[in-house]
Write a structure and sequence with these properties.
Elements (H helix, E strand, L loop, with lengths): L3 H54 L17 E7 L9 H18 L3 E7 L1 H9 L4 E5 L8 H16 L5 E11 L2 E10 L21 H76 L1
Parallel strand pairs: 1-2, 1-4, 2-3
Antiparallel strand pairs: 4-5
Helix pairs in contact: 1-5, 4-5
Length: about 290
């Protein structure tokens, strides 16, 4: 049976860990609220712009712009967005696992693949295992900036326009709620011209000077904004996952402390009973 000194040390250690996890939970909650506000503001604008651009893309000739160019898929670029830190449940693992599945699937089809790793965890995982990494971006979520989104979008667009890749896909965690994050695999380039469903375009527009001119002037902004939305989604999902993980860790520490206190009391009671028995036995022997 463990002695009282060991049990007290374990109780103190668990209490210290509980203080750390509670502080990390509060920090993650504060960051999550800010990240949630950012994505809730940006998401409707980007989605509406996406609907408008896809509407335009469905009405112009396929060869009128290089970002609409659908080619036989021989080379694919996967943009995988993970976090810079851990302690956020399966947030990083889920995005990495989905990327590995997609990478394996494409390789089995004879398609050449490369990666843009966003987030330190993504870069460390794929870099150590010899995956072909075209570019990496680490440490951007500490101070997330629109310039980071522009740089990532520029790298992917240049590779696509140069013919180095025929398809660009992106893997990230989409923020659904505080307790739910969903891993998403989306086609990024070429832009898919999906005609809007009934109700998506409530009225018919007259375009000036032309659909092609409007597309050329807006599509670059849309590409940047789409990456920006993905980064905001991933950031909000990461903070919510970390807050939930730290809350669970704090509760586990509380339960462990209660169990250790129970063991401590049991050991103390056993020691007291043993001492009393020895005293009574010694007194009887003297009589």
């Amino acid at each position: 049976m463990p002695n009282l000194r060991m049990i007290r040390r374990r109780i103190n250690a668990v209490n210290n860990i509980q203080q750390v996890t509670r502080a990390m939970k509060m920090i993650a909650a504060s960051r999550m609220r800010k990240a949630q506000e950012n994505i809730l503001v940006a998401r409707p604008y980007v989605r509406r712009l996406e609907t408008l651009l896809r509407h335009i893309a469905s009405r112009i000739p396929q060869g009128s712009h290089p970002l609409l160019d659908v080619r036989p898929v021989k080379k694919v670029l996967l943009i995988v967005v993970a976090g810079d830190r851990g302690l956020c449940r399966g947030f990083n693992a889920n995005a990495i696992r989905r990327t590995v599945e997609r990478y394996t699937e494409l390789k089995a089809q004879g398609v050449e693949c490369s990666l843009i790793a966003v987030g330190r965890k993504s870069y460390e995982f794929f870099g150590k295992r010899g995956f072909p990494i075209a570019a990496s971006h680490t440490g951007i979520f500490q101070h997330l900036n629109f310039l980071d989104a522009q740089e990532i979008a520029s790298e992917a667009t240049k590779l696509f326009l140069a013919g180095d890749v025929d398809l660009v896909e992106i893997v990230y965690n989409e923020f659904k709620s505080v307790i739910q994050q969903v891993v998403v695999l989306e086609r990024f380039l070429p832009v898919e011209p999906i005609p809007p469903e009934d109700g998506d375009m409530p009225c018919h527009y007259l375009y000036e000077p032309s659909l092609e001119a409007i597309w050329s002037s807006v599509v670059g902004k849309f590409v940047n904004l789409e990456i920006w939305r993905v980064l905001l989604e991933s950031n909000a999902a990461e903070q919510s996952a970390r807050m939930t993980a730290m809350e669970e860790a704090t509760k586990s520490a509380e339960e462990m402390t209660k169990r250790l206190i129970g063991i401590r009391n049991q050991v103390r009671q056993t020691n007291i009973t043993t001492e009393l028995t020895e005293i009574v036995g010694a007194a009887n022997a003297l009589d």
